[in-house]
Amino acid sequence: MAVTRAKIALDAMGGDYAPEEIVIGAIRATQELDVDIFLVGDRQAIEDCLARHPHQGLNLTIVDAEGVVEMEEDAVVVRRKPKASINVAMNLVKEKQADAVVSAGHSGAAMASALLRLGRLKGIDRPAIGTVFPTMIPGKSVIVLDVGANVDCRPKYLEQFALMGTVYSQYVLGVPEPKVGLLNIGEEPTKGNTLALQTHELLKSNPEIPFVGNAEGRDVLSGNFDVIVCDGFVGNIVLKFAEAVGEILLNIVKEELPQGWRGKLGTALLAPNLKRIKQRVDHAEHGGALLFGVDGICLISHGSSRSGSIFNAIRLAKEAVDNQVSVRINSSTSLLMERQKTEELQNI
Amino acid sequence: MAVTRAKIALDAMGGDYAPEEIVIGAIRATQELDVDIFLVGDRQAIEDCLARHPHQGLNLTIVDAEGVVEMEEDAVVVRRKPKASINVAMNLVKEKQADAVVSAGHSGAAMASALLRLGRLKGIDRPAIGTVFPTMIPGKSVIVLDVGANVDCRPKYLEQFALMGTVYSQYVLGVPEPKVGLLNIGEEPTKGNTLALQTHELLKSNPEIPFVGNAEGRDVLSGNFDVIVCDGFVGNIVLKFAEAVGEILLNIVKEELPQGWRGKLGTALLAPNLKRIKQRVDHAEHGGALLFGVDGICLISHGSSRSGSIFNAIRLAKEAVDNQVSVRINSSTSLLMERQKTEELQNI
């Protein structure tokens, strides 16, 4: 791991609980992680928050921005608001003053801003959003991409997602030989829709991708795969379903438990266990999603993020910086491009 | 509700635990439900099972069949095995001796056999598999279709799925004014892939469909919708994810609970509550999937079904028979066809 002190540009104005919860998350991150943080947004509002929370001696710098892309606005608004917090944060990365952006604001706007200001990595047609899911094997995670950036995909996009996911799994999640799967409706190579059938062939024939075959719905959580690729339509539906499941599960446990003295006593005795269950299934505990394929690290958090999620997102961003995810993806996709060029020349 | 005594053709040879668990489920169904059952399969094997379980005076009739489509065989094998249990069971419905087929065997083979022997309803291009999910609102269910029959869909297929789901919701699930949703990645009509965008328009403009808008991943379980339509690729992935989630949840609860005396005592006190949680989240408790759009009732159970699931599947089949689902879908889709014809004539 490269020894760096990651510099994070944090969109202090983005998210349902901005700037208060964002600032609290930032304070904790500078205390516990080896990071410097730029708090990007309305100086007065940020200073008011800082005044309420002890932060002396911490590496927090306020960077002025004007306005924010509101959740109900269209993503293209980023073009008309060059001084909005997300744009100023992206510029810090573009100008190499920061290593990564973290935002819990409008996710479409964050993506548009990243594309506009950072640009795509070579060899990447479409950036993808990747999210890390816990699996049923304790301590083992899986990265799923795309979970919402691209609703209509071509096979080669998914091939690129597989390459990017492999790099992330190897260098950030620390899996020496990641198993890559294609999200599909059956294990057999003959199963799936047109996109899945064509992608299967492409993944199978790419020597850079440790493709092990099709993954089914259950495999998102089974722990049998380290990387799962899918189009952003399917991925987004699975992601939102998964988020809801955690919540519903906790509700069911709550509803069913405290009835009568047995329930009350049992619940009291099990309090620490129930808390651990909550941590394992509650998606909010898990930080954010990474935007893969742009020339810089960009972490998109849930709009409902509170300080704990912001802290986790900063941690994820720092891990991506430390492990040089962008550089490694770049060299991985360069190989792909060279091979494609050679094949094209051979076909002439 | 029509007063009928439903006659069920049960594929006694289909499923991982056939024929034993199938026969046990059938015995219970004839005891507790108002049904007559044809046990279709190898007479000797079925008689051996019956001999082990008391069943005197019950309405069970064995119907001979030869062979079964094995799970690992291709679905087209149904054509080459006309006397296989699934085909003989379908024939009973075709010849009006039975009202419905229930099978826990090869689901592709069941679909192929139904298409071949029963045929499609008028106005239906593609039959769909619908499955009923419990929602987080106690007692409220949602029917999701398609969950696997059609991996590449056209907008008009989804329109037909919506019509069929509406009939089922109204007449079987007893929802007077069902809310129909389109599974998508956002609530706004402008969200989605090409299929979703086009389908949204179609659903919105069909007066027979009580369409309320897009449903997101979380809405599969939210209880905000009564019918959710999607293509069979997305639906199958969500279904298998959901099945796995129930199982994983139970594993997590088991793993986290019994540690130390607190855990053991707490678990003992909570035993009945944990059992109720299991019942609410365990997919195996919920029976099977209905094949919509063929000319007859056809219930497809999970291959791993044990007697409880078979019993539930028979109950679901009986409810569909009692509520004349096929007849009602037929009249609903006839309306659609007439409207389409009128539109075509107007366009000449």
What does this structure look like?
The structure is a homodimer of 348-residue chains. With 348 residues, chain A is α/β, with parallel strands linked by helices. Chain A folds into two domains: 1-121 and 293-323, Isopropylmalate Dehydrogenase (3-Layer(aba) Sandwich); 125-288, Isopropylmalate Dehydrogenase. Chain A contains twelve helices and eleven strands. Chain A has helices at residues 20-32, 43-52, 77-80, 85-94, 107-117, 155-171, 194-204, 219-222, 232-256, 260-281, 307-322, 325-347, and strands at residues 6-11, 35-41, 60-64, 100-103, 128-134, 141-145, 180-183, 211-215, 227-229, 288-292, 297-301. In chain A, strands 3-2-1-4-11-10-5-6-9-7-8 form an eleven-stranded mixed sheet, with helices on both faces. Chain A is globular. The first copy, chain A, starts with 5 loop residues before the first strand and ends with a helix. The mean pLDDT of chain A is 89.
Reported CATH architecture of the largest domain in chain A: 3-Layer(aba) Sandwich
Query: What portion of residues of chain A belong to β-strands?
Result: 15-25%
How many strands, what sense, and barrel or not for the largest sheet of chain A?
11 strands, mixed
The number of helical elements of chain A comes to 12
Which pair of chains has the greatest number of interface residues, and how are they split between the two chains? A-B, 58 and 58 residues
* Low-confidence spans of chain A: none
Considering the protein shown, what is the CATH homologous superfamily of the largest domain in chain A?
Isopropylmalate Dehydrogenase
Please indicate the count of domains of chain A.
Answer: 2
Query: What is the C-level CATH assignment of the largest domain in chain A?
Result: Alpha Beta
How far is it from the N-terminal to the C-terminal residue of chain A, by CA?
43 Å
